[in-house]
Specification:
The chain has 263 residues and is an alpha/beta fold. The chain has one domain: Metal-dependent hydrolases (TIM Barrel, Alpha-Beta Barrel). It has ten helices and eight strands. It has an eight-stranded parallel beta sheet. Strand 3, helix 4 and strand 4 form a beta-alpha-beta unit. Helix 3 runs parallel beside helix 4 and helix 7 runs parallel beside helix 8. The radius of gyration is 17 Å and the shape is globular. The two termini are 18 Å apart. The relative contact order is 0.16. The structure holds zinc ion. The site of zinc ion (ZN) has 5 residues, from loops.
Length: 263
């Protein structure tokens, strides 16, 4: 099977604690399972820097590793000056193997969220991506309407909604705008019929697979640490949705990822 993991966090400390041999052992095992490439996503300046450094170590017995850099919505409150933070993102975006700005977006899950700050960072980083001609990786949690409006306001930027959690109807609307959508372990959860329905509504050339590792491990590993090797389960479910085998589902999703990131 040929797989590309379009979104993961191998710099996360959970790998050292919960995966024997740590992140590099997990990446080696992923390569053995057929994972050719991993896009490691930053969530603040520190993890974006870690993504860039991880990317420089890919290849050989590891998958090829690429990085995306950006400030995640829940991290936006940490920076006293948005412009300073943005300068940091801009500098990192110029590093080798950086293929996207992300993950950026909106997260309205917590009631005490400062939505205004999140919206400013989101819009500014979208603008940065446009200026640098880089695609954007979006995190959207319980903010579907506002995210949709901002995506629509940036028609010149290639965009993916990572771990897509919207409706099938919204997936069709995004599809008609040429926006990519990426699916992970949730696709395999028993209670995730809504997510499977949404995946079925996505044009195949816009549908990517991811893990969000170490989070959101698919069934039958749900609740444990996730790794790119487990994408075989997600690909199996995706195949069943489209009436193909897991290999073809994985291959077509990998093609979409290649086109999206230019890798
Ligand atoms: Zn993530």
């Amino acid at each position: 099977m040929l797989l590309i993991d379009s979104h993961a966090h191998y710099d996360d400390g959970r790998f050292e604690k919960e995966y024997e041999g740590g992140a590099f052992a997990a990446l080696r095992d992923a390569k053995t399972a057929g994972v050719l490439c991993v896009v490691n996503s930053g969530a603040d300046l520190e993890t974006s820097r870690a993504s860039v450094s991880l990317a420089s170590r890919g290849g050989g017995e590891l998958p090829e590793i690429y990085a995306s850099v950006g400030i995640h919505p829940t991290e936006t409150g940490r920076y006293r000056s948005m412009n300073e933070a943005l300068d940091g993102v801009r500098a990192l975006a110029g590093e080798k193997r950086v293929v996207a700005i992300g993950e950026i977006g909106l997260d309205y899950h917590y009631p005490d969220t400062d939505r205004e700050t999140q919206l400013s960072f989101f819009d500014a980083q979208y603008g940065l991506a446009e200026e640098l001609s880089l695609p954007v990786v979006i995190h959207d949690r319980e903010a579907h309407g506002d995210v949709f409006d901002i995506v629509r306001a940036h028609p010149n930027v290639k965009t993916v909604l990572h771990s897509y959690s919207g409706s099938a109807e919204m997936a069709r609307q995004y599809g008609s705008l040429g926006v990519f959508m990426s699916f992970g372990g949730v696709l395999t959860f028993k209670n995730a019929e809504k997510t499977r329905e949404a995946a079925r509504a996505v044009p195949r050339e816009l549908l990517m697979l991811e893990t969000d590792a170490p989070y959101l491990a698919p069934t039958p590993h749900r609740g444990k640490i996730n790794t790119s090797a487990y994408m075989v389960y997600t690909a199996g479910v995706l195949g069943s949705l489209f009436g193909t085998d897991a290999d073809e589902a994985a291959f077509r999703a990998a093609e979409a990822s290649r086109r999206f990131f230019g890798i």
